[in-house]
Specification:
8 strands; signal; Lipoprotein
Length: 153
């Protein structure tokens, strides 16, 4: 008697439903709106690193790169290099901070999601945050409470 066993694996991206992909991008869009710096704040825009972490929110939702809310922009390579300079150094008033956003994780069978965000800045500066979102009765993803701080440097 001969027995055959087949092992089939699927990547989550290959089996993700269009509704789930739409939800991931809708949550990401809500987060981008929530972290955008208001134009009248006197500060420059918040900067985004679309390449990290891997995969990033922008890998899952590339259209978000072209439709950023006012107060956000994609950081260029030079800015990313300057933001990653760490250590006790003279910064000459040059504050640079860059957000790195992971794709949202939607809790199965619920209307709840979390997003991991890292804020990296020059010197001995940075933090890791987890934002919580929930889908309200109107089907809109909204921030659920304040972000949880996971680490601070």
């Amino acid at each position: 008697m001969i027995a055959a066993i087949a092992i089939v694996t699927f990547s989550p991206a290959a089996i993700a439903s269009p509704v789930r992909a739409d939800a991931v991008c809708a949550i990401g869009k809500a987060l981008l709106h929530d972290i955008a710096i208001p134009a009248d704040s006197g500060n420059g825009p918040a900067l985004l690193n679309p390449e990290r972490p891997t995969p990033s929110l922008f890998d899952r939702c590339p259209d978000l790169r072209q439709n950023l809310p006012q107060g956000l922009k994609i950081a260029d390579a030079e800015t990313l290099a300057r933001a990653s300079q760490h250590g006790p150094q003279s910064l000459d008033g040059d504050h640079i901070g860059v957000y790195q956003i992971a794709p949202p994780e939607i809790k199965p069978g619920t209307n709840l999601a979390t997003i991991s965000v890292t804020y990296e800045c020059r010197g001995l500066c940075g933090q890791g945050l987890t934002f919580r979102y929930r889908k309200n009765a109107d089907g809109v993803w909204v921030e659920d409470g304040k972000p949880r701080t996971n680490w601070v440097s």
